[in-house]
Design a protein that fits this description.
Helices cover 42% and strands 19% of the residues. By secondary structure, it is α/β, with parallel strands linked by helices. The strands form two sheets. It has a six-stranded parallel β-sheet with strand order 3-2-1-4-5-6, sandwiched between helices. Strands 7-8-9-10-12-11 form a six-stranded mixed β-sheet. It is globular.
Length: 337
């Protein structure tokens, strides 16, 4: 953030305000970690703060401090709408287009509140009054930490804030193995641990909390539904609603499934497609220079990062699979380099 903009933001937050924090549809670890990490910091500054999510977040994130105070817009539309309308400041975390917050978007757009965007995704829409944005950051949680640091208020970070922020960085970097993990990321992590983040406890909560059904769904997906296109260094998994129901699917049960494909030696591109909420939801991952952000934006109305993106389609699953296969073949030169 530019010095003049930072100075204005610091002045804005110097006195108690009614603040709403919003994050993207289907919140992940970085979305919830940044929202709740910033929430605890703002509460310490005596602000009146509400965290609103467009829909539910995965149950494996319910241990995050403050998660029980979040408001699910899809279930509490009237209450959430009143809070947005009354807000003096709206913090938009881990997204840079109002379309990413679904029906919350028009409410935020219509609000007279000053808007702060903190995000690391490419091609922001430019709707905010204050912007703390760079694609060089590993995660929005990393940016929240650097913003608080630039405001000169790291002393207000407590164990609750730090556990939330550490969790978001850990999940968005694949436990620090993705190329987005930089030296600065590790410096931020060290700062969080120094300030109270319980790193080994967080890893245990996030990695050792599976249900039997989730592991069975994972086994079924890998053994029965994984398709490899070896000539294109590509693989994909697709799941119908019936298959998910068979294994008592809960939100978050398939998180990270796409990464198993990419872990196969020689793979450059992986996709996961699932029937859900009347749509086909898609996750894309890649290695090297194959741009899944461009692939998702061009073909499936989505987006994300160079090596991690998502999209959706209203077509039937079989149709989407056929379309995906054709697109992979059309991208053959890029995938076979």
């Amino acid at each position: 953030m530019k010095p003049a903009e930072l100075k204005k933001l610091k002045a804005l937050l110097s006195k108690p305000k009614k603040i709403v924090i919003v994050t993207h549809w289907s919140p992940d670890g970085d979305a919830m970690g940044s929202s709740l990490g910033f929430y605890h910091y703002l509460v310490k500054k005596k602000h009146s703060v509400s965290v609103i999510t467009p829909n539910a977040f995965p149950s494996f994130l319910s241990w995050l401090p403050g998660s029980k105070k979040t408001i699910d817009f899809s279930l509490n539309t009237v209450k959430a709408s009143k809070l947005v309308k009354a807000a003096e400041v709206i913090c938009c975390l881990d997204f840079n287009s109002l379309s990413r917050i679904d029906k919350l978007g028009p409410l935020v757009e219509a609000s007279d509140a000053l808007k702060l965007m903190v995000d690391h995704h490419p091609q922001p829409d430019g709707f905010a009054d204050f912007n703390h944005h760079t694609t060089q950051a590993s995660s929005t949680c990393e940016l929240i930490y650097t913003l608080i640091d630039e405001l000169g208020e790291k002393k207000l970070l407590d164990k609750s804030s730090c556990n939330c922020l550490y969790t978001g960085i850990m999940t968005d970097t694949g436990s620090f193995r993705f190329s987005s993990t930089t030296a600065n990321t590790h410096r931020v992590l060290a700062g969080l641990i120094d300030a109270g983040a319980e790193n080994s406890e967080i890893h245990a909560r996030m990695s050792d909390d599976n249900t039997e059904d989730r592991l069975k769904l994972l086994g079924y997906s890998l053994s029965q539904k994984m398709v490899i296109l070896p000539e294109f260094h590509t693989g994909y998994i697709s799941l119908t609603e019936e298959e998910q129901t068979r294994y008592n699917y809960k939100k978050g049960d398939t998180d990270g499934l796409v990464n198993f494909i990419l872990s196969i030696r020689g793979m450059k591109f992986a996709a996961f497609m699932t029937e859900r909420d009347g749509l086909i939801k898609m996750s894309f991952r890649s290695k090297g220079k194959f741009d899944v952000n461009a692939f998702a934006r061009k073909n499936f109305g989505g987006g994300g990062h160079l090596n991690a993106a998502g999209g959706a389609s209203k077509e039937k699953l079989e149709t989407v699979i056929q379309q995906f296969q054709k697109l992979v073949k059309a991208s053959g030169k890029e995938l076979t380099k």
